[in-house]
């Protein structure tokens, strides 16, 4: 079995506390990014590979099952 992973979202003011807790308990911690705004942007090697409006993502999600059943 591989180890499990957890995604945590917290206020930037709490970041140092989380880092200290992870270090204290020997838990690896990697910052992936930040949340906010009205777009989902995922970058790899300095290039945006995903750049979508959150509204569009919501529409795609809500319509996905219906599209598959047609």
Explain the overall architecture.
This protein has 70 residues and is of the alpha+beta class. The chain has two helices and two strands; from the N terminus they run αββα. The chain has helices at 15-24, 54-69, and strands spanning 39-44, 47-53. It has a two-stranded antiparallel sheet with strand order 1-2. The protein is elongated, with a radius of gyration of 17 Å.
Shape: elongated
Strand order of the largest sheet: 1-2
Mean pLDDT: 90
- Beginning-to-end CA distance, first to last residue: 39 Å
Main sheet record: 2 strands, antiparallel
Please count the helical segments: 2
What level of helicity do the residues show? Answer: 25-40%
Any low-confidence stretches, pLDDT <50, length ≥5?
Answer: none
Order of helices and strands: HEEH
SS class: alpha+beta
Strand content: 15-25%
What keywords describe this structure?
2 strands, 70 residues, single chain, 37% helix, elongated, 19% strand, alpha+beta, 2 helices
């Amino acid at each position: 079995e591989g180890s499990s992973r957890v995604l945590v979202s917290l206020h930037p003011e709490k970041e140092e506390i989380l880092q200290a807790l992870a270090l204290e308990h020997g838990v690896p911690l990697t910052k992936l990014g930040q949340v906010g705004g009205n777009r989902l942007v995922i970058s790899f090697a300095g290039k945006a590979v995903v750049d979508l409006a959150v509204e569009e993502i919501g529409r795609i999600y809500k319509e996905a099952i219906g599209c598959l059943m047609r």
